[in-house]
User: What shape does this take?
Amino acid sequence: MKICVLVKQVPDHEAVIRVGEDGSLEVEDRYVTNFFDEIAVEQAILLRESQGGTVTAVSAGGGRNVDALRRALAMGADAAVMVDDPALADADGLGLARALDACLGTLEPDLVLAGRVGLDDEMGLVGPAVAELLGWAHLAGVVGLDLDGETFTAIRLVEGARETVAGRLPALLTCSKGLAEPRVPKVMQVMKASRARIDTRDLASLGVDPAAVAPLIRVAGHTPPPGRAAVRMIEGDLPEQVQALASILLVSAGGTS
Amino acid sequence: MMSAALVLVEHASGVPRRACLETLCKARDLGLSPVALVCGADPAAAAVACAPFADRVLAAASDDLERYNADAHLALAARAVAELSPVLVAGPSTITGRDLVARLSARLGGPYAAEIIDLALGADGRPLAVRAVHGGKALARIAFEGSGPCFVTVRSNAFPMSEPRAPGPIESLEAGIDPSSLRMRVTNVEETGGGRVGVTEADIVVAGGRGLGDPGNFALLERLADRLGAAVGASRAVVDAGWRDASDQVGKSGNTVAPGLYVAFGVSGSAHHVMGMDGSGVVVVINKDPNALFFQYADHGLAADALEILPALIEALGE
Ligand SMILES: Cc1cc2nc3c(=O)[nH]c(=O)nc-3n(C[C@H](O)[C@H](O)[C@H](O)COP(=O)(O)OP(=O)(O)OC[C@H]3O[C@@H](n4cnc5c(N)ncnc54)[C@H](O)[C@@H]3O)c2cc1C
Ligand SMILES: Nc1ncnc2c1ncn2[C@@H]1O[C@H](COP(=O)(O)O)[C@@H](O)[C@H]1O
Assistant: This one.
């Protein structure tokens, strides 16, 4: 079985992110592989270990995303492919999906795993969009997965329910927390991955017209999140505290419709 | 003629997700004509619930629409878009709502923005949206290119509800689903959350962390939640410990919530947790440690033992 995993690099949650005066984002240079993508890589490796086959990490857009490919290699992926092209510099999720779709077309996987959402721009577009362009089934928010030949049984956690879904390959699944616990690669594997060859392709070699990846959404600017006023601490002895808390809750609860 | 805003309504037991109703109201406020598409095995109740907020309700009934099935729901949504040529197509920012709208945008080649928290129309009549990025560290203003429909999913509690009006007509839409086109089937459904409203839907969330000491003490939180009509949320630490279901988790790797009131007992307030609730209205934090990080993100703080406060609070509020 051939599994491809879509990965990207995002700012670490502890990275300082500030809005500049011109509305641009200033992001501290602390990046990690997207949390959900590491879960996807782990799940792919577990499947290979139990069923055989290969795991190929795939990314688009170049730049820091190379580090996500190297992370996947260090965790145990067999190969890494990058779609890099100047036209992808300001691509949005749909543009990236078009590039990834063309690339996956040449790799011919049976199963593609992606993250539920990228913890940078938090769109959650690329997975479902790639599935749509491939013309494949897609299941979102997968927390459990069983493969049996051509068929799979997956568990997705939706609001208010845990659903079991049965389907056939090929399919694209987006992975949520709980599916697998990403392994931490050993130093040797990290070093080896840092020297591994990354198969890099441009749009022309994939037959993608650069106009097809032009962005459809534009970030007109950023603003800092609305700040909160300084906390007001509730004082007094226990009965006074409880009374004050009760009244805050009742007044605030009344304010919600 | 007024441009249409098509809202793809997700519902549970006949009750539409609040984000769907809120978006219908917002569309009307913006001078768009709100149209609801309600799919289900029996969409009647949800259609009736939408009608007072919509100019039209399209209802499609089929057993294949009982649970979200991408192939079936996409086909119907695409047909509704073709029929209405809406300027905006919106769904709730739920797991399946985000799947449906993202995939629909890719099918129709239109711009998509996820989990928006504000919406306006520009001078050219094109939508402009606001959404949080990087775990709420910044808000991004989004403009949509092109002339076709713009696709969005909407966070609950982003828009106020308006007064119900005379209900718009409910028209039935032929489901016309070819069963052989369905590539996946839901084979089992296990309800979570014990019938209480979910954390992403609720007006009020009362959350508990490891500071509650043991899983049994969440019974106190549930009693408080029932008294307030709230959902019960949890930190990742208690989900990982198996005290609460993963669907209750608030934060980076769980749910993003923005209720009007968020009350946390025994939660430390790590960045991972705060990321998931920072958009909430009033935030109240109860923590034994007067230096707990969470107080920095709260409107009201109480440095006290949650296990002493909770029983007394429930009593003060009355059953
Ligand atoms: C990649 C990643 C993703 C993560 N995603 C999430 C996420 O989505 N959601 C999330 O919540 N966390 C997430 N975390 C974990 C997060 O960093 C914290 O570890 C977690 O939120 C801590 O949970 P807690 O506050 O319940 O427990 P603790 O950190 O143990 O804090 C318990 C708190 O309770 C207080 N306390 C103790 N006893 C009492 C008492 N009797 N009365 C009142 N207060 C008391 C203590 O002072 C302390 O502040 C993530 C971490 C990582 C690395
Ligand atoms: N540039 C990219 N290259 C490869 N995969 C990506 C890229 N961007 C996003 N993805 C995948 O799509 C998922 C959702 O990302 P996003 O749509 O950006 O929220 C991620 O978790 C990745 O699996």
Summary: Chain A touches chain B through 84 residues (CB under 8 Å). The pocket of adenosine monophosphate (ligand 2) is lined by residues A 6-8, 34, 36-37, 59-61, 65, 93, 96, 100, 114-115, 117-118, 121, 123-127 (CB under 6 Å). Chain A has seven helices and 15 strands. The two ends of chain A are 52 Å apart (CA to CA).
